[in-house]
Amino acid sequence: MIPAAFEYHAPGSIGEATALLVKFGDEAKVLSGGQSLIPLMKLRLAGPRHLVDINGIPDLAYIREADGFLRIGALTRESELEESDLVRTRYPLLHDTCQVIADPLVRNLATIGGNLAHGDPANDHPATMLALGAEVVAIGRKGERRIPIASFFTGPFATALGPDEILVEVRVPIPPPRSGGAYLKLERKVGDFATAAVAVQLALGANGACEQVGIGLTNVGLTPIKAGQAEAALKGKRPDDKAIQRAAQLAADASQPSEDLRGPVEYKKDLVRVLTARALKRALERAGGR
Amino acid sequence: MQITLSINGEKHEADVEPRFLLVHLIRDILRLTGTHIGCDTTHCGACTVLLDGRPVKSCTMFAVQARGKEIMTVEGLEQNGKLHPLQEGFMAEHGLQCGYCTPGMLMTSHAFLKTHPTPTEEDIRRAISGNLCRCTGYVNIVKAIQYAAAKLRG
Ligand SMILES: Cc1cc2nc3c(=O)[nH]c(=O)nc-3n(C[C@H](O)[C@H](O)[C@H](O)COP(=O)(O)OP(=O)(O)OC[C@H]3O[C@@H](n4cnc5c(N)ncnc54)[C@H](O)[C@@H]3O)c2cc1C
Ligand code: FES
Ligand code: FES
Question: What stretches of A5-142 adopt beta strand conformation (E)?
Answer without folding.
Answer: 7-9, 28-31, 50-53, 63-66, 69-73, 135-140
